[in-house]
């Protein structure tokens, strides 16, 4: 528990102190955000706001994680240190953040709202996903558990749905691509993705900590969890939560910096990686419900427009729909945060009710 608190505190501290330095540096370099011409009129004033602030989230995440392990080692030098599960989730977040960084950098250099083309972005996500998919099935512990399994999962693995390795790699790519793009779509209003991401990651702190308390290795029973390194996954999630909250201090409306694709792709990678390593891939759809709905709104907008030549929403992602309907930006943000919080609480309720159903209450 102490490691979780240290990771969250350090992640928060690094993020909240590093972000203003990035604001000054990026402002001097002219690393300002380009705005969609067809976007809400109020967004035009945001042109030139520093972007790529996701760098602060990624740095804070990594520093928070390793400082927590250093403190753990100083307390007890016999501790094993970072685990395969924790390092792989970190790798996924950092690698996707790098793809997003390249996207942001190209936008800035070309002075437009389009960075990497769709093919280049998908190839980047594909390479990262394939490497993650291959590695996440390696590194069995003493009980034969690997960081992820080839079974689809809800709150634990579903025995009836098993993916052969090639299918698992495809599934992994689709999952990672979906989550990273879903968070990317949500990152359209000041602090919206950062606040919702912090809630989802905090939910995973609770879930992975609970799994550690009821690990089948430590306390075998009907309701135990076969998850490799759940406590270390809680440390990762805690460091990421602290990083998001610290960044949100500067990113909340009116934002002084945007996370850009650097941050949104990294956050999506964290949700995807944590869902796979905690065996909660289907439950994550509920926990990250706001991100899912934002992505669905884009898909529906495209599908309806291509078939009927009419728009389902005034603008997609659909948080812009409410802005164009006359809602103030802060009103949309706060209400969407409430929806994100409801999704997280509902997800926790489903997680706990499944455990109660197996006699673990």
Architecture overview:
One of its GO terms (biological process) is cell division. The chain has 361 residues and is mostly helical. The chain has one domain. The chain contains 12 helices and 2 strands, in the order ααααββαααααααα. The chain has a two-stranded antiparallel ribbon. Helix 1 packs antiparallel against helix 2 and helix 6 runs antiparallel to helix 7. The longest helix has 29 residues. The chain starts with a helix and ends with a helix.
Domain count: the total is 1
| Mean pLDDT metric | 90
* First-last Cα distance: 21 Å
| Poorly predicted parts | none
Number of helices: 12
Tell me the number of strands.
2
Overall geometry = globular
Alpha carbon gyration radius: 20 Å
Structural class: mainly alpha
User: How much helix, percentage-wise, in residues?
Assistant: 55-70%
Order of helices and strands: HHHHEEHHHHHHHH
Read across the widest sheet, the strand sequence of neighbours is: 1-2
Bin the strand percentage.
Answer: under 5%
Main location: membrane
Subcellular location: Cell membrane; Membrane
InterPro entries: Glycosyl_transferase_4 (IPR000715), PNAcMuramoyl-5peptid_Trfase (IPR003524), PNAcMuramoyl-5peptid_Trfase_CS (IPR018480)
Transmembrane segments: 6-23, 52-71, 83-102, 122-139, 159-179, 191-211, 231-250, 257-276, 282-305, 332-352
């Amino acid at each position: 528990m102490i490691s979780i608190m240290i990771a969250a505190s350090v992640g928060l501290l690094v993020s909240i102190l590093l972000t203003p330095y990035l604001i000054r540096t990026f402002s001097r370099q002219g690393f300002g955000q380009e705005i969609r011409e067809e976007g809400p009129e109020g967004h035009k004033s945001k042109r030139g706001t520093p972007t790529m602030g996701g760098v602060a989230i990624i740095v804070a995440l990594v520093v928070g994680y390793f400082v927590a392990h250093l403190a753990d080692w100083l307390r007890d030098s016999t501790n094993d240190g970072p685990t395969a599960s924790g390092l792989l989730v970190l790798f996924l977040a950092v690698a996707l953040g790098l793809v997003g960084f390249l996207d942001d950098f190209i936008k800035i250099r070309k002075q437009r709202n389009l960075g990497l083309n769709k093919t280049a972005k998908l190839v980047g996500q594909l390479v990262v996903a394939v490497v993650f998919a291959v590695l996440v099935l390696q590194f069995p512990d003493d009980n034969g558990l690997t960081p992820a399994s080839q079974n689809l999962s809800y709150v634990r693995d579903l025995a009836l749905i098993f993916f052969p390795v090639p299918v698992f790699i495809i599934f992994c790519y689709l999952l990672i691509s979906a989550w990273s793009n879903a968070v990317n779509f949500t990152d359209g209003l000041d602090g919206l993705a950062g606040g919702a991401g912090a809630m989802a990651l905090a939910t995973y702190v609770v879930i992975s900590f609970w799994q550690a308390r009821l690990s089948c290795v430590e306390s075998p029973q009907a309701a135990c969890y076969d998850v490799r390194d759940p406590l270390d996954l809680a440390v990762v999630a805690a460091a990421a939560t602290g990083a998001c909250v610290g960044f949100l201090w500067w990113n909340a409306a009116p934002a002084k910096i945007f996370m850009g694709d650097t941050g949104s792709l990294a956050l999506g990678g964290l949700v995807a990686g944590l869902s796979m390593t905690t065996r909660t891939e289907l439950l994550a759809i509920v926990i990250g419900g706001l991100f899912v709905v934002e992505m669905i709104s884009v898909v529906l907008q495209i599908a309806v427009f291509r078939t009927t030549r009419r728009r389902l929403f005034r603008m997609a992602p659909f948080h812009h729909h409410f802005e164009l309907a006359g809602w103030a930006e802060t009103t949309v943000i706060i209400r969407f945060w409430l929806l994100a919080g409801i999704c997280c609480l509902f997800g926790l309720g489903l997680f706990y009710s499944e455990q109660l159903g197996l006699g673990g209450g």
